[in-house]
Amino acid sequence: MVFGPLGASCAPYIKSSRTLSRWFKPIANWYAHAAGYRKYGFKYDDLLVEERDDVQRALTRLTVRESYDRAYRLKRASHASVLHKPLSQDQWITPAEDKRYLKSHVLNVVKEDQERQYWDNLDVKRN
């Protein structure tokens, strides 16, 4: 199990094994469909908690197009929530469209924070 900035994950271990991948892939697909976020037009990264500092900084690194698309998905999903029904099926996010667009930015922010902490706490000894 790997603990990272986005939470605990067994994914690297499962992806490294062909057998485990074959077993868990249908379960993962079922779970993503059962979660229902795609029915409201969300991508997986739209569900990350925005109150975290690293996610806030990662959001500022998105391109203008990615920021616009994210805001549009959030508005469209909140409208569907107010109506108490999901979007029509032709507007659902397909598994092919549900790509992680924010994860790399969050991981870069965390790496930069770790590097900054290392350099800030570095002890310099003079001879």
How does this model look, in words?
The protein has 127 residues and is mainly alpha-helical. It has five helices and two strands. The chain has a two-stranded antiparallel ribbon. Helix 3 crosses helix 5. The protein is flat and about 70 Å long.
Biggest sheet strand order reads 1-2
Mean pLDDT: 91
Total helical elements: 5
Radius of gyration: 19 Å
Oligomer: single chain
Distance between the termini: 43 Å
Report on the biggest sheet. 2 strands, antiparallel
Give the SSE order as H and E letters: EEHHHHH
Stretches where pLDDT is under 50 for at least 5 consecutive residues are none
Q: How would you describe the shape? A: flat
Helix fraction bin? 40-55%
Describe this protein with a few key phrases.
127 residues, mainly alpha, 5 helices
Brief summary of the model shown:
The protein has 127 residues and is mostly helical.
List the helices and strands and how they pair.
Blueprint: E1 2-4, E2 7-9, H1 11-16, H2 18-35, H3 53-60, H4 64-82, H5 103-120
Antiparallel strand pairs: 1-2
Helix pairs in contact: 3-5
